[in-house]
Amino acid sequence: MSDELLRFVIGPTPYASWWLWVALLLLLVVVGWYVAVFVLTLPGRRIRSLPVIGATHSELLKRRSARAVRAVGERYRAGELAAAPAAAAVSRELRAFLHHATGVRAEYMQVGAIAASELSSAAPVLSELNDAQFNADSSSDVGAASDSAEELIRTWS
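The chain above was modelled as a monomer; its predicted structure follows.
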């Protein structure tokens, strides 16, 4: 009987040491979550200035944009899209890529302004896409223009 009452005299049993490791791991997960949210919601110009994350972001942007341009080109070649909508879609994607890659608002610029800016290497492709989009008698090949746009995106530095 004296042994039964002894458990009330001694303090509580100590916690297991693995609880400390679980708490530290959860703390690291929460801190990692906040860092990821902070980095992923930064403006594009700030992300480009970060050393490792900027290069990764740039590569992922190139891949996504090139894939989108290739998909439009394939839909055009398959006959799902006419020339004008396909040219508009490729132009929109190329201009969005240029905006995200450089920070220049290429979506709102005319081709002449693009030719006079740091984006001058994209001007011939955009000119050909504009011709295919707005000129019904155009001899521009949207498939070749989408290939050129995809190549421009892949080689952009």
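The chain has two domains: 2-40, 44-155.
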